[in-house]
Amino acid sequence: MGYNSFSCKHFPQVGDFSQEKLGLKVMIKHILMLQLKEFAEGAGKAENAQKVKVALEGLRSKIKEIRHLEVGINIDESPDNYDLAMYSEFDSKEKLDIYQKHPEHLNVAAFVIKVRQKRRVVDYEV
Fold first, then answer.
1. Where are the alpha helices (DSSP H) in 59-121?
2. pLDDT digits (tens, 9 = 90+) for 11-48
3. Which segments of 1-126 does DSSP mark as H helices, in order?
4. pLDDT tens figures, 64-89
C-alpha cells in the first residue's frame, strides 16, 4: 500500500483505494531549491540566480513532458534561506524521468552544478 492509498483493518473489504486503481489522474510534483555560491562562473550570486531562472524557464518550450514549471528568486536574503526555487509538474514519474535525462535539462544542470552551493529536491505524487 502506497502513501496515496486507503485501507482500514476494521473494514478489509474496503481494499486499496490508490489513485491509479480508482482511475484518477496522478500528477508528480518536482520541487527544487538552490543555494548559490557568492561568486561563480565569473558572476555574483544575483546574476547567476537570474541566469538559472531564465535557463530553467526556457525548458518549458524545449521539453514537452513538462506540464507546468515556474521559478522564483528568493526576496529574503537571510543566510539560511535558499536563493531560488523551482516548482514543476509532470503527468507521471516516467515523464519526470524523461525530463531529467533530456539533453536540454542536462545542459542547464551542468551550469547549475557550477554555481550552486546546496541543492534540495522533493518529488511527490498527488
1. 93-101, 103-115
2. 455 555 555 566 677 899 999 999 999 999 999 999 99
3. 45-58, 93-101, 103-115
4. 999 999 999 999 988 899 999 999 99
| Global pTM exceeds 0.85 | no
The domain total for the chain is: 1
Q: Residue type at 13?
A: Q
The residue count for the chain: 126
Which residue has 536563493 as its cell numbers? 83
| 58 falls within a domain | yes
Cα–Cα–Cα angle for 42, 43, 47, nearest 5°? 155
Residues 6+ apart with CB under 8 A from 79: none
CATH number of the domain bearing residue 37: 3.30.70.100
How many other C-beta atoms are found inside a 10 Å radius of the C-beta of residue 36? 25
* Spatial separation of the C-alpha atoms in residues 48 and 115, rounded to whole Å: 7
In the structure grid, which three cell numbers stand for residue 53, read together?
531562472
Give the pLDDT score at 79: 86
User: In which domain, by residue range, is 102 found?
Assistant: 25-125
- Cα distance between residue 41 and residue 18, in whole Å: 46
